[in-house]
Design goal:
- With 370 residues, the chain is an alpha+beta fold.
- It has two domains: 23-56 and 167-369, Putative cyclase (Glucose Oxidase, domain 1), CATH 3.50.30; 66-139, no CATH class.
- The protein has helices at residues 30-37, 123-126, 191-194, 235-244, 268-272, 283-291, 317-325, 337-341; strands at 45-47, 68-71, 88-90, 92-94, 111-113, 127-128, 131-132, 172-174, 195-196, 199-200, 211-219, 232-233, 254-258, 280-281, 296-299, 329-332, 346-351, 361-363, 367-369.
- Helix 7 links the parallel strand 15 (296-299) and strand 16 (329-332).
- It is globular, with a radius of gyration of 22 Å.
């Protein structure tokens, strides 16, 4: 039997219309969001992203990740700079885009007074060539609270960092301009006409709205035993798990698959072996996901899908089927470890990508609120 990409049946325009750029995110109606919010029972939050660090897992084709101090907080001392009345100190870093880009969150290692960061931490002792020992942004927990807008206008001195990395770094959300079929992106958008030196004209990550919906984690391990490299996740295993836990996948849900591979994230040498041979979503499960109108999916593996691919002579066929044909976005390297270990299989799922114009993906910190 031929695959969908081997016959001549039309696969676009989308069922959502020829001008659609949202794909299955069209299912995220106000009623869908309200129903998802009702899942919160304990007021607890699980962070579903990995920590970003020097030497973390990554492919050569994505480029390396570096985090270096270019200016330390104590560099304000004469003769480098004139001292200020408030004894200001600020640190600069290089990563290759600013960590203060667009809407951003400052950490407590950003501003010093008289050589001290927040809580009296010595800026000299805290500063290394690879960043701060304490108060780094990785120490900030997920923030879920009541918000109030207050208008304030003031000017201060501050530290900036630069980041060089791929938009597919660590835990990230793929956009619909990431994968094409026969020169076409999702909904038949021409990949040549859509591509510029500064990214895509359509389907860029900035077109993705905040995602708030019901989330499900399917634990595909056998009592915590990590799945075998190259093993596709069987539909029968998924359906058995859902039945045992009285769960049913509904249109617009975000569904993620736990293989156990994410337990190796802090062992880059081991984790990187899963780029070439990994458990994950196969073609049968991809079609199952698409048939159910899932809004977002992914697994706790480097590429979400089983590797090597089940179909000879193909590259990332699951990405192509889900993203290009079905309009379903993927989150690769999602950290399902805590949710699976605590048996938190259903929750309020919240995810908002960086609004990088024309980008094909965004690093994200998805939240499972339960």
């Amino acid at each position: 039997m031929s695959e969908w990409f081997e016959d001549d049946s039309p696969w676009y325009p989308s069922k959502f219309g020829s001008d659609d750029i949202l794909g299955t995110l069209n299912y995220l109606s106000p009623d869908k969001i309200i129903s998802a919010v009702k899942l919160v029972r304990h007021g607890l939050v699980i962070r579903l992203s990995h920590e970003i660090y020097n030497g973390m897992p990554g492919r050569d084709t994505h480029g390396p990740f570096y985090y270096l101090h270019s200016q330390r907080a104590y560099d304000v001392r004469p003769p480098l700079r004139q001292a200020t009345r408030n004894k200001f100190g600020g640190a600069l870093c290089r990563i290759e885009t600013s960590d203060h880009m667009a809407t951003h969150l400052d950490s407590l290692n950003h501003i010093s007074f008289d050589g001290k960061f927040y809580n009296g931490i010595d800026s000299y002792e805290n500063s290394t060539v690879y960043g701060s020992l304490k108060l780094g942004i990785e120490s900030v927990p997920p923030i879920v609270t009541r918000g109030i807008v207050v208008a304030l206008f003031f000017v201060i001195g501050g530290a900036l960092c630069r980041i060089e990395t791929s938009d597919h770094m660590a835990t990230h959300l793929d956009s619909l301009n990431h994968i094409s079929f026969d020169g076409k992106f999702y909904n038949g958008i021409d990949s040549y006409e859509n591509s510029t030196v500064y990214g895509s004209l359509k389907l860029g990550i900035e077109s993705v709205p905040p995602i708030v919906t019901r989330g499900i984690v399917v634990d595909c391990t056998d009592s915590g035993k990590i799945m075998e490299p190259g093993e596709p996740i069987a539909v029968e295993r998924v359906e058995k798990f859902l039945d045992e836990n009285e769960l049913k996948v509904r249109e617009g849900d975000a569904v993620f698959f736990h293989t156990g591979v994410s337990s190796f994230w802090n062992n880059p040498q081991k984790y990187n072996t899963y780029y070439d041979r990994s458990p994950g979503i196969g073609m049968e499960l991809a079609k199952w996901i698409s048939d159910r109108g899932v809004s977002v999916t992914g697994s706790d593996t480097p590429a979400t899908e089983v590797s090597p691919p089940e179909i000879d002579g193909t590259r990332l066929p699951v990405h192509q089927y889900l993203i290009t044909k079905s309009g379903i976005r993927l989150i690769d390297n999602i950290n399902t470890q805590e949710a699976a270990s605590k048996k938190v299989y259903q929750f309020l799922f919240v995810c908002a990508p960086l609004r990088i114009r024309g980008a094909t993906a965004s690093p994200v910190v998805p939240l499972a609120i339960y």
